[in-house]
Amino acid sequence: MLVLIYSDDSNTRSEVILALGNRPHPDLPAVDYVECATEPVVISTMDAGDVDLAILDGEAAPAGGMGICRQLKDEIYQCPPVLVLTGRAEDGWLATWSRAEAAVPHPIDPLLLAETVIRLLRPRAELTAG
């Protein structure tokens, strides 16, 4: 499975990868990551169509993950699920505006992130397996 991670901060991208590992759950296939530091790379990678989940940093600059999420949901037919990393738990409503399927606040809780990613990847894994 392919997971896109977008943040202008390489530490945030590394933190997400470290929290999830190469197999977030034994029932899921192994995960490969594509790291993106800029909005144009996110858009072109998502347009290519092989991404199973996008994790977008809502605090990234100059383009925040919530705005990018909304654009992806508007422009990509059957857009894969998106998880937005919010600045704080109270920003969950902004993730709803962006049409993200889920949100996890900073600082990243590895268990919450893994549970959320597993929930979002499981239906995609079942589609490819069946």
Number of domains: 1
CATH topology: Rossmann fold
What is the assembly state of the chains in this entry?
Answer: single chain
Query: H/E order of the elements?
Result: EHEHEHEHEH
Residue-averaged pLDDT, rounded? 94
Per DSSP E runs of 2 or more residues, the count of β-strands stands at 5
CA-based shape:
globular
The number of helices is: 5
pLDDT < 50 runs, ≥5 residues: none
* Neighbour order of strands in the largest sheet: 2-1-3-4-5
Distance between the termini: 15 Å
CATH class: Alpha Beta
Description of the structure:
The chain is α/β, with parallel strands linked by helices. The protein has one domain: Rossmann fold (3-Layer(aba) Sandwich), CATH 3.40.50.2300. The protein has five helices and five strands; from the N terminus they run βαβαβαβαβα. It has helices at residues 10-20, 39-48, 65-75, 92-98, 110-129, and strands at 2-6, 32-36, 53-57, 82-86, 102-105. Strand 4, helix 4 and strand 5 (102-105) form a beta-alpha-beta unit. Helix 1 (10-20) crosses helix 5 and helix 3 packs parallel to helix 4. The protein is globular, with a radius of gyration of 13 Å.
